[in-house]
Amino acid sequence: MKKVKKDKEGECEVLCINERKVASARKTMKSDATLFKLAEVFKVLGDPTRMKIVSALLQEELCVCDLTALIGASQSAVSHQLRVLRNMGLVKYRKDGRIAYYSLDDDHISSILTAGLKHVEE
Amino acid sequence: MKKVKKDKEGECEVLCINERKVASARKTMKSDATLFKLAEVFKVLGDPTRMKIVSALLQEELCVCDLTALIGASQSAVSHQLRVLRNMGLVKYRKDGRIAYYSLDDDHISSILTAGLKHVEE
DNA sequence: CCAATACATGAATACTTGATCATATATTAG
DNA sequence: CTAATATATGATCAAGTATTCATGTATTGG
What we know:
Two copies of one chain form a homodimer. By secondary structure, chain A is of the alpha+beta class.
């Protein structure tokens, strides 16, 4: 159901498409792969539990037990979501005995949240 | 299954929880409502189709038809996702006859993407 | 060594959600 | 008015996902 029509010469005659604007946008847009990765990062931040975890880690590293107490979820749920955050490279952790201390992986994450907050807080 | 124990005086004796760090984090963390809204915004940006739409609109307004051509999705899918973006206040639109021109709702959105890109592009 | 603690993880389930299909509305050309 | 165009939207459905439950691994105190 493409919005195009074949004319007598076999060429495409577009309808309402503004070719110039479309070409211009296509030129400056990031690659599909980059946009996909970007969407993945935002998707990971787009869950309340994970958002709470990340924002709790903004100041200092915390262990799983601290995080569980802080955000009001089960230890299992926190652990599962920490793995998601780890896999996306948003948090890292170090082990000290049987305690795992989690922290944010890089400084960009703080600025992502800050930028988002500006939109949320009007 | 709370990680707490009642002791003889009826008080809570925590296990590995670092009370000081937890209290400190709790103080500076945004409210649950704010974090929830923040997660919602990121969730909306966390879909490849919507991410493509938003990034296509970074430079100038585009009509639905342009967007459909640009991002390679059906008109219906684009329309549905535009509504999600509208409801979240990420895009706005104006009608000119039967054509709807969409644009980003505020400038923060660009900075959110920029911050995210810094993480994605290492 | 043994029990308790801290955390991780597989399975099952309920819930969410993005795409498609069909159709509706609105505008304009003829 | 009528047909075509541009967009919106409800319903359906398949795929994804967050939580819970049960259990596993690793570390440490006694």
